[in-house]
Amino acid sequence: MGRERKACREKLVAMTLHAIAHSKQGTVEQCAEIARIPAADYHDPDRFQREVDGLFKRLPLMLALSAELRKAGDYKSMDACGVPVLITRSEDGLVRAFVNMCSHRGSVVVMPGSGNATRFSCPYHAWTYDNQGGLRAVFAAADFGSIDLARHGLTPLPVAERAGLIWVSLDPRSTLDVDDFLCGYDDMLAAFGFEDWHLVARAEVAGPNWKIAYDGYLDLYHLPILHKDSFGPKMPHQALYHAWGPHQAVGAASPLLPKLEEIPEDQWPDEVLLGGVWTIFPHVSIASFDAGGRGVLISQLFPGETPQESITIQSYLMAQEPNEEERKEAAKQFELLQHVVREEDYATGLRQQRALLTGAKSHVLFGRNEGGGQRFHRWVKRLLELDDDELAKVFAKAKAKAERSVV
User: Fewer Cβ within 10 Å of end Cβ, the chain: N or C?
Assistant: First the structure.
């Protein structure tokens, strides 16, 4: 076992021992006090635009899975917060990202979707680019006039591939170090081995304000209540949180965990150590499931066009390529999860959104047992107040703190 993997497993075991201790004692960690968040933070247009510009267009976003771009020539085209993005894997094996905009007149070069190609021809005037972003040909070049092809390629975006996931910054000028931003959290996510997993299902779900939706991913308090007719009765409502900067792992002090002590720690299964929900600030949730094989639901949450809207892309991945029977079971699991998110979580969130718009309440509350939500809103507020230099320093400091932490 490599040094990094060993260190990761030691942290996962320490987190599990932490949960076992709470399970035996019947306790849960609590914050010092209840937090009050202004209700307007969920619907104020100015605040919403500050979040889009100050978070989603300034921080690295997890826009793709390595499983989507396995081979040289694979690409993915998508819109992220109004920015057309093209992500490619070229012959050298590297992933690159670009603003999906032709250097001629600004047309989108590659329509949304995915595929495999080494050349991309703009549908407007057929200017052609390679999958490393270089401009290769100008249609009717003699008529157009002299142009330096090397200076008119696609505009590159900062990109990083870590732990089988691909992060892209939507600002071409961003200098924020992705390793500082991740605070070592990617080392933990690497334990999943996502680069070898298989994408088996995907869907989009419309939802309420992005923070209302994201609050739910950090919240176990609602599970046995809101989901009483689906999977909730079997779920705990007391959460344990571990943080790497703004990124958080959400676990529970399950009464089943102490049974692990009956076997040696080095035999504790990965699916148990990696259970719970792993959130990537500001917009991703990874939840583990077992349905005919080990799987995860990865949710990528994006603000909509107004404060009252969001879009979530949900991808179901499996550790092993499923056979026909496993694929059927996974499809049933994914269908259930879609129902739960759409008809329970987001339907409730949309009603919550409309109620908050009345102005009848000035604040919403996060209890002492809702530490994950409290931490999330503190980070949102803090980052919106920082300029780029301060932002870089905050993440560098958060990374150093995470490195010193045992759990």
Answer: N
* Rounded Cα–Cα distance for residues 104 and 153 (Å): 10
- Our measurement of the distance from residue 8's CA atom to the centroid of its chain's CA atoms, rounded to an integer in Å, reads 20
Residue keyed to tokens 């999860």: 337
Peptide bond between residue 322 and the one before it cis (omega within 30 degrees of 0): no
pLDDT per position as a tens digit, 237-284: 889 999 999 999 999 988 889 999 999 999 999 989 999 999 999 999
Domains located in the chain, CATH noted: 3-58+184-404 (3.90.380.10), 61-175 (2.102.10.10)
Q: Give the separation between CA 6 and CA 198, rounded to whole angstroms.
A: 25
What tens digit of pLDDT does each residue of 39-94 get? 999 999 999 999 999 999 999 999 999 999 999 999 999 999 999 999 999 999 99
Is the predicted pLDDT of residue 305 greater than 60, yes or no? yes
Using the Cα atoms of residue 394, residue 400, residue 403 and residue 407 in order, give the sign of their dihedral. Answer: negative
Instruction: Look up residue 155 and give its DSSP letter.
Output: P
**Is 406 in a helix, a strand, or coil?**
coil
How far is the C-alpha of 257 from the C-alpha of 407, rounded, in Å?
A: 17
Q: What is the pLDDT of residue 231?
A: 74
Q: Which DSSP symbol is given to 99?
A: E
- Taking only Cα atoms into account, the Rg of the chain, rounded to an integer number of angstroms, comes to 22
The per-residue DSSP string of 25-71 comes to HT-----SS-EEEEGGGGT-HHHHHHHIIIIITTS-EEEEEGGGS-S
Distance CA 244, CA 182 (A): 8
| pLDDT score recorded for residue 4 | 81
% residues pLDDT > 90 (the chain): 86
The model carries a pTM of 0.95
Number of H helices, E strands in the chain: 12, 20
* b (16+ CB within 10 A) / e for 332-359: ebbeebbebbbebbbeebbebbeebeee
Q: Are 171 and 272 in contact (CB under 8 A)?
A: no
Instruction: Report the C-alpha gap between 300 and 306 in whole angstroms.
Output: 18
